Amino acid sequence: MAGLKTIIVLSFILAIGFLLVILSSALFGPNYFPLLVVATYVLAPLPNAICSRCAMPDDFIESGSSGFVDFGRFLTGFLVVTGMALPALLAHSGIIQIPAMIMSIIGGLLVYGTVVSFGMFFQEETDF
């Protein structure tokens, strides 16, 4: 059971992640391309949530794995890898600097890790 301390710690880590991504955009020139990482990490958990709900339309019958769940995991993995690869691609092409890339990747991983942790700590458990 997650309590108030868990919420405070997760919100603090989320704030640090957003701060790192915003600072990677602001410190190394007025270049706002690293903010695209936030969009990919915020959208990353959505395919899992949508596809897992589509896979089990009936709450009384629990099946193993289905194509919907696998497709949701694939899309989530694609968005997470895109969130890490996009700053590396921008740094390689010279659009952003290397320290901005590092700050953007670390901040994005903190944001995504917080979203996953929040889902893990606060998921509903239904017992029939």
Key terms:
single chain, 128 residues, mainly alpha
Q: Mean pLDDT score, rounded?
A: 83
Net shape: flat
End-to-end distance: 19 Å
Q: SSE order, as H and E?
A: HHHHH
Q: Quote the beta fraction.
A: under 5%
Radius of gyration, in angstroms, nearest whole number? 17 Å
Please mark out the parts with pLDDT under 50 across 5 or more consecutive residues, or reply none: none
Fraction of residues in H or I helices = over 70%
| Biggest sheet details | none
Structural class, from helix and strand content?
mainly alpha
GO cellular component, one term: Vps55/Vps68 complex
Pfam family, one: Vps55
InterPro entries: Vps55/LEPROT
Membrane topology: Multi-pass membrane protein
